[in-house]
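**Protein record**
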Amino acid sequence: MLKSVSIGGLASTGRRLGWGVADQGLVSLINFEIGVAVARSVAPREFGVFALLFAAYLVASGLNRAFSCEPLAIRFSGSDVERWQEQASAAVGTALAFGVVAGLTFAIAALFLPPGAASAWWALALGLPGLLVQDCCRYAFFSSRRGGSAFAGDVIWAAGVTVAIVSVAWFGRGGLVAYVASWSGAGTVAAVFSSWWGGLRPRPWRAPSWFREHADLVWRYAFEFLAGGGAIQLAFYGVGATAGLAAVGALRAAQLVLGPLQVVLAGMGVVSLPEAARLTRDSRSSLRIAMSGLSGFFVAASAVWLAAILCVPDEWGRGLLKSGWTSGRAVVVPMGLALAGIGAAHGAITGLRALAAARSSLKARLLATPLIICGGVGGALVGQEQGAAIGLAIASWVAVIPWWAAFETELGSRTRTAPDRDMHPEPSLLRGNVAV
């Protein structure tokens, strides 16, 4: 991406990309594994309960990253080992404290749910602190360029989930609750291992001071996540309210089939931000071309994977997901197009982060979020799960416009106020981007 790079720099970037893709692939495999196990074992309505439960976990995970992981990566990635370990322990402690609070919230919400659904939510509530600590440990390792350590922790998680799922299937007891407990319990075991392996001693009592010290970051990142990353989860809840749990289960089944694309998106994200940050010191045209190529790559990957899915015989799909394949296959094309739309905007999003254009990024999110929610819920009102998927696809592609408009505007303003080859981003954010 740069005009001149050293062989050593390319090798380092390649290693970071390799660990990033491998680790994200493993995490996605864990989520895919539990999703397939649930889909094969429960009725469509129960799978809808799982989809909503998993969406709630993703919201908690996103907020946890804003509160603990991202401030650590931005401000302490260049610190010496002793200082990094001290601050990483504080961040992991903050994740533990937030996990306890979020778990209690989930447990209270379970009191108002039907018995079957309530038990599954309680199982998640008990395991949520461990899941969030494991996620924070992963980010901490990547912030210190220890991708292998992050991968080792997730190997423990994957092995634990596999053993637990096989045991539940063998004895044939527990249903949805047993699978959720297996997934979250194995994550807690992995969190204990990662904390020990990295020398991270969670300090939950440091959470209040952590929030005070990083208030300028944590609340902005949390709001950005809720405005952007939580949009699809809110859309799922809206679809569940308007079209029923079976419709949510169909959309979630389609997401499982499209899972490898999300691995590529997340894995490349580990490296695309640092590379884009370096390009902020190159010419405007180089940054624009690189970000356009990044989006183009994701769109092309989406098209290839979607074509491959359409070629899979139905009996193979039913053998994997059983009834979930039938419902997911019906909406996989529009859901694949929705994911391609997210990829089309990814280059602009990465470019804005590299330029540290937080205000422009937030404005674009505030325009894109209502589109996603209205597209999913409005489509569900018109055509159940099929309409919801089509609505999400249309909204995702329309949302590409404000992202690229914001990127072009910001890029133009930077090059008018600074030499073309020296578009300086905010130093603290640049250091954070390079470390992630």
